[in-house]
Amino acid sequence: MNPIILLIEDDAQIRRFLRASLVTQGYELIEAGTGRDGLALAASRVPEIVLLDLGLPDMEGLDVIKQLRAWSSVPIIVLSARGQERDKVVNLDAGADDYLTKPFGIGELLARIRVALRKSLSAEENQQTPFYALGKIKVDFDRRIVVRGQDEVHLTPIEYKLLSVLLKNRGKVVTHRQLLKEVWGPSYVEQNAYLRIFILNLRRKLEDDPTRPQYLLTEPGIGYRLRDD
Predict the structure, then answer these.
(1) Which CATH number goes with the domain that contains 165?
(2) Which of 97, 136, 193, 203 is most buried, judged by most C-beta within 10 A?
(3) Which stretches within 54-156 are classed as H helix?
């Protein structure tokens, strides 16, 4: 069965363009021109991915994200002309998985869709087994063991928790605020200095060259992303 993609976009020209592009790649596309129609389709058709415009005629895309996240973990990729850093951070904090600024190339969108589908499938599989592997890095959550290549890596409790959050969200940008809240707690969401120190420590322990990280990547001004192989 072809993966179902829900497109919530009020611009008919963009919908036609994406319909032609996605259907030829083997995806089944369902479309909505308003936020309310999109939420109804998300509930009735249960898509594998949601592509969401922010400037909808009846409600803000941010509200669509919040309502979806109340009951669904479906990957959400925001497609928006709003390219400001704050817009990206707010929507990612609300639960979006990715953010693509218009205009964008169809090749980049297809790559983001593939990453989101892999992450979603990986999350389902990892509900069955508490084990993660990423390149040279292997994490056994049952035994709380981290291995890089053939060597066990000794992490502090905070470093281990930080890595766990990033691994469970691999391929996805996790904002500074999200990481601080999950690892340190709600009262630390403004303490970016803590985060920078521990990210640096993780890179020293996990990367071949911490100054040129291959796994733990920085998304400037937004947060961090663990590469998804």
Answers:
(1) 1.10.10.10
(2) 97
(3) 61-69, 85-94, 106-126
- Parallel, antiparallel, or unpaired for β 49-52 and 4-8? parallel
Rounded to whole angstroms, the Cα distance separating 161 from 159 reads 6
Considering the domain architecture, whether residues 64 and 82 belong to the same structural domain is answered as yes
Confidence at residue 128, expressed as pLDDT on a 0 to 100 scale: 45
Provide the pLDDT confidence category of residue 124 given band limits of 50, 70 and 90: low
DSSP string computed for 19-33 = HHHHHTTT-EEEEES
Give the number of other Cβ atoms within 10 Å of residue 56's Cβ.
21
pLDDT above 90: percentage of residues in the chain: 52
> What is the enclosing helix (H) or strand (E) of 147?
strand 145-148
Whether residue 98 contacts residue 113, with contact meaning beta carbons closer than 8 Å, is answered with no
Which of 124, 156, 171 is at the close of a domain? Answer: 124
